[in-house]
Amino acid sequence: xxxxxxxxxxxxxxxxxxxxxxxxxxxxxxxxxxxxxxxxxxxxxxxxxxxxxxxxxxxxxxxxxxxxxxxxxxxxxxxxxxxxxxxxxxxxxxxxxxxxxxxxxxxxxxxxxxxxxxxxxxxxxxxxxxxxxxxxxxxxxxxxxxxxxxxxxxxxxxxxxxxxxxxxxxxxxxxxxxxxxxxxxxxxxxxxxxxxxxxxxxxxxxxxxxxxxxxxxxxxxxxxxxxxxxxxxxxxxxxxxxxxxxxxxxxxxxxxxxxxxxxxxxxxxxxxxxxxxxxxxxxxxxxxxxxxxxxxxxxxxxxxxxxxxxxxxxxxxxxxxxxxxxxxxxxxxxxxxxxxxxxxxxxxxxxxxxxxxxxxxxxxxxxxxxxxxxxxxxxxxxxxxxxxxxxxxxxxxxxxxxxxxxxxxxxxxxxxxxxxxxxxxxxxxxxxxxxxxxxxxxxxxxxxxxxxxxxxxxxxxxxxxxxxxxxxxxxxxxxxxxxxxxxxxxxxxxxxxxxxx
Length: 501
Prior knowledge:
Elements: E1 8-9, H1 30-35, H2 38-47, E2 50-51, E3 59-69, E4 74-83, H3 85-92, H4 102-131, H5 144-169, H6 174-179, H7 185-205, H8 212-223, H9 226-255, H10 261-269, H11 279-288, H12 290-307, H13 312-319, H14 338-348, E5 353-356, H15 363-373, E6 377-381, H16 385-398, E7 403-406, E8 411-412, E9 421-424, H17 426-433, H18 442-446, E10 461-466, H19 477-486, E11 491-495
Parallel strand pairs: 5-11, 6-9, 6-10, 7-9, 10-11
Antiparallel strand pairs: 1-2, 3-4, 7-8
Helix pairs in contact: 3-16, 5-7, 7-8, 7-11, 7-12, 8-12, 9-11, 14-15, 17-19
C-alpha cells in the first residue's frame, strides 16, 4: 500500500487578483487516476505541473472577499486564501541584522584601494621631487588660510582625544570599556590597550573568569587596527635610528683623532635624516609609557603568551572556537580577501568564474553579490532541497520576497512581480523551465499568474549561479549539464571539493 498522494493538476481556476491568493481545488478521486491511460498520463506530465503536496495544505484563510455575480445579480462573499510559503520562508530566515550587504563592503574596499593607490602615487611623486633636486627651494609657501585650517583641524583632533581619554579614565571593567564609544582612532587604541591591561592583570592574579583566550582575543584585535600597526612601525624605526646614531657617535669619537678635516666633512654629509614621529605615533608612544609602562608591559606579556604557544591553531580550535573571526568579541570588522576581490571584479565585468575554496571561506558572499548586482533574474541551482530552503529563506528576507522556488515536492513564485532569484534543484528546475504548456495553460486562459505554476524558459536569466558544482558527477549531474548548456549568460560556479567532479 502506498501513502504517496496522487499527483494533482495545478490550476489557477478561481484565482483572485490578490497576491498569492487562490480558491481551493478538490483533488481527483483515486479511481479516476487509476483509469488514466498511458498516453493520457504522458500528455498530462508534459502539459501540467505535477506536485506531490496537496495544494490545500499550502493555503491559509486570509479573510473574505466580496464579489458581484452578474448572472444572479447579487453580491457574494468568498473565502480569500493565500499561500503559506512566504510565512514559512519568513520563519526560516536568519536573525535580523545577521545578513550584511556584500555590495556595500565591496564599494568600501574599492574606495580604500583607490585611496591607497592615490597615497602611494603622492609618496612616489614626493620621492622623485626630492631625488631630482627639488625640496625646500622649490616648495611653495603655505597660504595663511591653509595654515589656519590645518591648525583648527589639529586643535579639534586634540580636543576629541582629550574627551575620549577623560571618558575612558572612569571605566574599570572589560564590559564597560567594550561598550564605550570613542570618536578618535587614538582613543580607540587607548580603549583596547586598557582592556588588554585589565585582562592581563586578571590572568596574573587568577581572577575568576580570566583566561588566556580573552587576552589573545584582545591582542589580535589590537594588532588588526591599521593605525596601531603603522604607529608601532614608526616608533620602532625611530628607536632603531636613535640606536644607530648612538653607535655611530661612539665610533666617531674613537676615530676623531685619526680623521682629517676632509673626512669629517664627508661624514657630516652622509648623516641620515632624523625620523620625526607623526602626531598619532607620538600619542601611542605616550600611551605605552602611561602609568610607568603598564600598557607596554601588558602588551609584551600578551605577545610572549601568543608566541609561547607551540600549536596556536590547536589552541584556537580547542580553547577559543567561539572567538574565532568573525565571532571575536573585540574585532567585528569584516575584510574582503584578495581572491574575493578578484571574483567580485569579474562579476562586475560580467565574466564567468569557477571558484574552488574551503568551506566557510566566503563563497556565499560572492553568490549573494551576483544575485543583487545582476541586471535581471538569476538562476541559482543547488544540489539538495534542504539547501534550496535555506538559501530561499535568506534571500526572501534580503530581496524583499522576490524569490522563486523549484523542488521535487513544491514549486512557488511571487505572482505580484518578477522574481529576482530563481532557486531550485537541477531536475526540478529543468522540469519547470522546459514544461510544454500548449494544452495546460489555465493561467494563459485567465491571463493571471498562479503561485504554483512557474514561468518557463531560459531566456529570462541574466546570470547563472551553480553551488556545489562538483555534483556534476552526482545523480542529477545530467540535468545540471543541460541547464548550463541552455543558459546563454555568464555563470559563477562554486565548490569546496571541485576535484570530485
